[in-house]
């Protein structure tokens, strides 16, 4: 199994630039101080001759280094931020509340600081996250068989048109365009990296995407066409299964998914996805390696396109494919999620070593 590790010069340059693309994936140990840090640590940068780089916190501790008190490398960044912790607690307490900047002012918070913190940790602002949470309430009401007006109220929208517009922006069409007697059913799936939409029939999973993925509306429309309009809201045993497996995955209990998949794509695209399924948790491949494994070494760009067209996120692990230099490269769910998934999967790799 190839493990793509950037060279020393690349990592030291990332340290000097506080490059967030390596945060959580590499740590620097500083011989002159005896501490180890994130590459984004705000402390004064050490001389290169005092630096060594490791992939995990455990390796740094085993090497005799102690964690930095400024960047707290042993603590997930978001949970270490008291502002983020307080706002997420409020969001869970009042999921349908319509948050705005005046609410942040009343809590004594600076909206621009909150915006930057949430963008850095989650790839979205707090207000965008709050809007997603409101839509979740409406979506859940529809999946439970509620009427559109009931979903609108549950989501905290005063205007029916505003609710339809927000819903269509996320899923490509207004609630009324979905079937009331569907073959394919869509429901909300919760994960620590944000909400996902799962679409399944009674035997296979057809789509699993993060709610804020830009391609989601077009993907839903395409499934709607393929199903001759028979796409609606609800839950199937397949959605229950993938929710259980995702929970186990994020809790570090099980890295393998067994949910049956429906692969919608060209024969080559499906071959790429099947090759991705062979990459174990904690493993990394380059686009070139995937192309070689398929016997198509010249098809690197085609592999990259197929990788980007994946619509069953996490399960088909397109996040395990990186640039040849070890850079994260693109990810439809956001680079911050790709980084978090890789960081999580290191625990699986260490357990198997």
Question: What key attributes describe this structure?
Answer:
10 strands; 353 residues; 44% helix; Arc Repressor Mutant, subunit A; 3 domains; alpha/beta; globular; 11% strand; DNA Methylphosphotriester Repair Domain; four-stranded mixed sheet; 15 helices
Q: Report the major sheet.
A: 4 strands, mixed
- Number of helices in the DSSP assignment: 15
Strand order of the largest sheet: 3-1-2-4
CATH superfamily of the largest domain: Homeodomain-like
Low-confidence sequence ranges:
none
Could you describe the 3D structure shown?
The chain is of the alpha/beta class. It contains 15 helices and 10 strands. The chain has 3 domains: 8-75, DNA Methylphosphotriester Repair Domain; 76-171, Homeodomain-like (Arc Repressor Mutant, subunit A, Orthogonal Bundle), CATH 1.10.10; 267-352, Arc Repressor Mutant, subunit A (Orthogonal Bundle), CATH 1.10.10.10. It has helices spanning 8-17, 57-62, 77-80, 82-93, 101-106, 111-122, 126-143, 148-154, 160-171, 216-226, 237-250, 267-276, 287-293, 300-308, 335-352, and strands at residues 27-30, 35-38, 51-54, 66-67, 184-189, 196-200, 205-210, 231-233, 285-286, 321-322. Helix 9 (160-171) crosses helix 10, helix 12 (267-276) crosses helix 14 and helix 13 crosses helix 14 (300-308). The radius of gyration is 22 Å and the shape is globular. The model has no long low-confidence stretch (mean pLDDT 86).
């Amino acid at each position: 199994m190839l493990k793509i590790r950037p060279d020393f010069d690349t990592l030291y340059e990332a340290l000097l630039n506080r490059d967030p693309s390596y945060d959580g994936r590499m740590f620097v140990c500083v011989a002159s101080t005896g501490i180890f840090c994130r590459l984004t640590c705000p402390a004064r940068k050490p001389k290169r001759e005092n630096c060594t780089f490791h992939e995990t916190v455990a390796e740094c501790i085993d090497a005799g280094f102690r964690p930095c008190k400024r960047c707290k490398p042993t603590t997930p960044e978001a949970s270490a931020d008291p502002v983020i912790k307080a706002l997420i607690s409020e969001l869970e307490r009042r999921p349908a509340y319509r948050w705005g900047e005046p609410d942040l002012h009343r809590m004594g918070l600076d909206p621009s600081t909150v915006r930057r913190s949430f963008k850095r940790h989650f790839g979205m602002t707090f207000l965008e996250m709050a809007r997603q949470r409101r839509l979740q309430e409406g979506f859940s009401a529809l999946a439970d068989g509620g009427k559109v007006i009931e979903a609108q109220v549950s989501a905290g929208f005063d205007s029916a048109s505003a609710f339809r517009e927000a819903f269509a922006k996320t899923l490509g069409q207004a609630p009324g365009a979905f079937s009331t007697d569907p073959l394919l059913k869509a429901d909300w799936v919760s994960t620590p990296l944000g909400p996902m939409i799962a679409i399944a029939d009674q035997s296979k999973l057809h789509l699993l995407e993060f709610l804020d993925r830009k391609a989601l509306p077009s993907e839903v429309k395409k499934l709607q066409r393929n199903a001759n309009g028979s796409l609606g809201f609800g839950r199937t045993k397949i959605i229950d299964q993938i929710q259980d497996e995702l929970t186990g995955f994020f809790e570090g209990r099980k890295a393998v998914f067994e949910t049956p998949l429906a692969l919608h794509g060209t024969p080559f695209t499906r071959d790429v996805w099947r090759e991705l399924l062979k990459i174990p948790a904690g493993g990394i491949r380059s686009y070139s390696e995937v192309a070689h494994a398929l016997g198509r070494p010249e098809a690197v760009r085609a592999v990259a396109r197929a990788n980007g067209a994946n619509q069953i996120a996490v399960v088909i692990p397109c996040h395990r494919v990186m640039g040849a230099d070890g850079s994260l490269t693109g990810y439809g769910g956001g680079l911050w999620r790709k980084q978090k998934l890789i960081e999580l999967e290191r625990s699986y790799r260490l357990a198997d070593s």
